[in-house]
Design goal:
Length: 213
Amino acid sequence: MSGRGSSSIFDQIAKDYLSEIAQMDWRARAHRLGGEHRGDELRIPLFGRAHRLTPEGILDPQGNRASHAVSVVLCKYVLLCPDKPAPMQDWVTFKDFRDAAPFAGAFSNNVERSLSSHFSNRLSALDAACSELGGYTPQTGLSYELIRQFTALPRVELRLLFNDEDEEFPAESTLLFPDNGSDYLDMECLAILGWLLADLLIRRGGGSGAALM
């Protein structure tokens, strides 16, 4: 979607979310979500970059209005803010979430297949892009050519698994979520979070990235 009409709709959605958030105890939520409350602002890092939720709107680190996708994710993160989230027990794929089916196809195409295509035979470029975005190598018993973990939001980590193309198989990427991720974001926002990661990595890898609003 694009154009003046859809922009107005998206602006209204963000405005409605912010109106709800304004009625809440920001200080308590900031503590539970790993953010910071300063005056009339709530600051939350997204992939290590501080964003500000203000009564006037959501601002990126440069002080510009954040994209619709980023705004929705940050608003939902604050709105859903669980009092007692379930403890994380395992890593799961997106399609493993109970309500993921309506978004699973788009997620596979826009995130995992997009990463596989862009970084096929470019493992070093993916490694560098991950490092630029703060990705680190976690301790796992998994056997992949590249495993990187990212702090997408203070309470939501993402884990990327990647095997490069070889003589028998094409490049393959898989994105994993903590199994309690749905306590913090709904399915649409978890999908957007994965798409944001793919977009950021592809841009750092020399591509144009996906067109997220």
